[in-house]
Specification:
Elements lengths: L5 H14 L7 H10 L7 H26 L5 E3 L9 H8 L15 E3 L10 E3 H4 L14 H17 L7 H7 L13 H11 L29 E7 L4 H10 L3 E5 L4 H4 L1 E6 L11 E9 L7 E5 L11 E5 L11 E6 L6
Parallel strand pairs: 2-4, 6-9
Antiparallel strand pairs: 1-6, 3-7, 4-10, 5-7, 5-10, 7-8, 8-9
Helix pairs in contact: 1-3, 6-7, 6-8
Family: Belongs to the peptidase C1 family.
InterPro entries: Papain-like_cys_pep_sf (IPR038765), Pept_asp_AS (IPR025661), Peptidase_C1A (IPR013128), Peptidase_C1A_C (IPR000668), Peptidase_C1A_papain-like (IPR039417), Prot_inhib_I29 (IPR013201)
Protein name: Procathepsin L-like
Length: 342
């Protein structure tokens, strides 16, 4: 739960109650939601505020789904564990706003360009192939490390045939160079560079997730699982290249624009939002596959790190072909070390 002062809480409660009153018919639903997600509020004012936020989010979800049922949207929303948070709080809690990705990957990386290979399949799902670990939950810590470990897990699987859950905490604690900053911000290619420099990465089991930056790196080279020699980058706005990379290389790390409140409450279907023209990205996910359906209904399969309570058991189908959520602005992958490692 985000901390909030008593004075600010009272002011927020008063402000919301000027425009909305709590619906008594939702009392049972509210109690059930609190019990499901183990929500407790110390102050009555805090619960009143959170209840008002929850009701507003619930109304938004219901209104959207009614229109989706009529065909206006291709996706549906659902109440989840974020229900008592405002969109502004979610942006601060879950995301790191990073807009300058143009210059950070120009050194050391290998550029992946699309080809005219006619054998690129129309459907790829690395979950079915066995190269994707279970959906994880980042909690209140920044998410870039989950996308990075997902790509490294896929790389290791493709190289060895073994699927091992790798340590996000290892990257949070040890990848603090340049623009990587613990739980607050980070680039996945810098995480891959950290793995290269330190000679590997530990498993989730040997270096468990704490959900906060501890200030010291506890990487154990004796417990290293896999190594990479560099990183690769897909050209910006090249969805064809991104598709080919997913097919030939494996799961790909991407940064996306996830500031929409509807993104936070996505439940099912193919997510598609109007392109707002902004270039900012603020959340990190892992592309684990795609489907080139007919009639313009193709989609990417993205793995998130908000637990299985979000989306389609932790996954999202994102519309292909129009750079939805800026999915092609920053897409990177680790390059395995052929000479070293397990």
């Amino acid at each position: 739960m985000l901390s909030i002062s008593v004075a600010a809480l009272i002011w927020l409660v008063s402000l919301r109650t000027l425009t909305t009153a709590l619906d008594p018919t939702l009392e049972g639903t509210w109690r059930d939601w609190k019990a499901t997600h183990s929500k407790e509020y110390v102050q009555e004012e805090e619960e009143s505020f959170r209840r008002a936020v929850w009701e507003e989010n619930l109304q938004m979800i219901q209104d959207h789904n009614k229109q989706a049922d009529l065909g206006k949207y291709t996706y549906w929303l659902g109440m989840n564990h974020f229900g008592d948070l405002t969109n502004e709080e979610l942006d601060k809690r879950l995301h790191c706003l990073l807009s300058d990705v143009d210059n950070v990957t120009k050194v050391n990386g290998i550029m992946f360009k699309s080809s005219d290979d006619p054998n690129i399949p129309d459907h790829v799902d690395w979950r079915i192939k066995g190269g994707v670990t279970e959906v994880k939950d980042q909690g209140e810590c920044g998410s870039w490390s989950f996308s990075a470990t997902g790509a490294l897990e896929g790389m290791h699987f493709k190289k060895t045939g073994k699927l091992v859950s790798l340590s996000e905490q290892n990257l949070i604690d040890c990848s603090t160079e340049r623009q990587n900053s613990g739980c607050f911000a980070g680039f996945m290619h810098l995480a891959f560079e950290t793995v290269r420099k330190q000679g590997g990465i530990n498993s989730e089991k040997s270096y468990p997730y704490d959900g906060e930056y501890r200030g010291s790196c506890r990487y154990d080279p004796e417990q290293s699982i896999t190594r990479c020699k560099s990183f690769g980058k897909i050209m910006e706005n090249d969805e064809k290249g991104l598709q080919e990379a997913v097919a030939k290389i494996g799961p790909i790390s991407v940064k996306i624009d996830a500031r929409s409140i509807k993104f936070h409450f996505y439940k099912s279907g193919i997510f598609r939002e109007p392109n707002n023209g902004a270039k900012q990205t603020n959340h990190d996910m892992l592309i684990v596959g795609y489907n080139n359906s007919s009639e313009g209904k193709g989609y990417w399969i993205l793995k998130n790190s908000w637990s299985t309570l979000w989306g389609e058991k932790g996954y999202m189908r994102l519309a292909k072909g129009s750079n939805q959520c800026k999915v092609t602005e920053y897409a990177v992958f680790p390059v395995p070390d052929p000479k070293k490692g397990k």
